[in-house]
Amino acid sequence: MKLSKNDMVNYGAILVIVVSLASIGMQLTGFATVQDTGIVNVTIDSAAAINFTIAFIDFGNGTVDAGPAGATLDTEGTVTDGNWDTVSANLTLENIGNENVSLNFSSDEDADTYLGGTNPTFKYKVTADESGACVDNTASSYIDMNTTSTEVCTTFPFADAMDQISIDIELYIPSDSFTGEQTATITATGTYGV
Amino acid sequence: MDTKKGTVILVSIALILAITAIALNLTSSEPVSTTPKELQTNAGAGEVGIVINTPEGIEDKGAEGDLA
Predict the structure, then answer these.
(1) Which residues, 6+ apart, have CB-to-CB distance to A7 below 8 Å?
(2) Which candidate from A61, A66, A186 shows the least CB-CB separation from B57?
(3) pLDDT tens track for A1-53
(4) Whether A102 contacts A151, CB under 8 Å
(5) Probe site for chain A from B9, B52, B58, B66 (most A CB atoms < 10 A)
(6) Residue A87 lies in domain
(7) Is A91 contained in some domain?
(8) Nearest residue in chain B measured CA to CA from A116
(9) A61, A163, A193, B4: which could join B51 in a potential S-S bond, CB 3.0 to 4.6 Å?
(10) How many domains does chain A have?
(11) Dihedral (C-alpha) A96, A98, A101, A103: value to the nearest 10 degrees?
(12) Is the dihedral of CA A149, A150, A154, A156 positive or negative?
């Protein structure tokens, strides 16, 4: 039996139709094989969440010594030219969310409004408690605290092995500073793109 | 003539179905979001407190003023 050119085209078209229908059927019904599957569906929302696990540093009472222009204190145990007790605790910040965030710091006070007097300083330093906790750290040595937001870590990861940083504080209190109780609130802001 | 007409119809149907099958396969690929990223933030606050006493030998003018 000899097939004409027309017949061959027809058979080819029929073959294409059969294959296409099978493919479409699998797409629409999902039945491709006899295998069956069960699906457990869960949706985990992403969330940026950071938390100061140590949220308060108290330098306590003290006075600038008579004579020096001012006293220097920090949270690494330094007290120079003043009689404040040494402080060896720092603020501790943890990423408790499930997203890596970029981290910014700002304060409601700068050195002039917090301490007053002649050339006061209010500085902070960020240290990764766990390796990789603050990528591109711009505050690895003491820098001025500002009332405007400053990015300190381009990435503050959420992974448990690298989600904690420490913030040390250094103050220079001039002898003509404000007196009495002074408090500054430092705000840490974590940001990520959804 | 009728045979040719039938072939044309058959080939047309085959083409339409083939294109539909290919399109369905392509659309079952993972979707890629083209919307711009929205920024989400979370903030925490820490406090630094200190009590600064008046240095020895310096008059507390504020206190003096209160007394006056």
Answers:
(1) none
(2) A66
(3) 677 888 888 888 888 888 888 877 776 665 555 666 778 888 777 788 999 99
(4) yes
(5) B52
(6) 50-191
(7) yes
(8) B52
(9) A61
(10) 1
(11) 0
(12) negative
Put simply, whether B11 touches A (Cβ < 8 Å) is yes
Q: Is residue A28 part of a domain?
A: no
CB contact under 8 A, B17 and A17: yes
Contact A182 B49 (CB under 8 A): yes
Q: Is residue A70 assigned to a domain?
A: yes
Q: Cα separation of A139 and A52, whole Å?
A: 18
ipTM of the complex: 0.74
Residue A183 within any structural domain of the chain: yes
Return the DSSP state at A160.
G
Residue A11 confidence (pLDDT): 85
* Residue B3 main-chain phi, psi, to 5 deg: -60, -45
CB contact, 8 Å: B5 with chain A? no
Any CB–CB contact under 8 A between B38 and chain A? yes
| pLDDT digit string, tens, across residues A84-115 | 999 999 999 999 999 999 999 999 999 999 99
Which residues have a Cβ under 8 Å from the Cβ of A55 and sit 6 or more positions away? A91, B44, B45, B46, B47
